[in-house]
Amino acid sequence: MNLFRRKPESLGEVVRRVRAGEQKFDPSLREFLDSFYANVDSRQQALAERPASIDAVHDAYVAAVRRTSCARLRVADTRLERDSW
Q: Could you tell me the pTM of the whole model?
């Protein structure tokens, strides 16, 4: 993690950083998950934004993380339908 930059607060922010070339996918996602599990009050908000597309593999990974996180929070996630991505 860059000590001068905060951790991504949403999956959308992870994707934005990767697309902008600011950070690689794996460390950005790890930082997001650290923040996500540490900040109980902002978890639902962290999943609310629909991330942009990176590529098929990374999109599938983001969708899997989002689906698993929603299941743990017991939050219905209708935005993960195949046609919505």
A: 0.81
CA distance 27 to 81: 27
Query: How far is Cα of residue 5 from the mean position of the Cα atoms in its chain?
Result: 17
Tokens 């629909």 belong to residue: 50
> Is residue 30 helix, strand or coil?
helix
Tens-digit pLDDT profile for residues 24-43: 999 999 999 999 999 888 88
8 Å CB contact between 32 and 13: yes
Q: Which residue's entry shows tokens 């992870």?
A: 14
What tokens appear for 11 in the block?
Answer: 């999956």
Three-state DSSP at 2 gives coil
Coil, helix or strand for 44?
helix
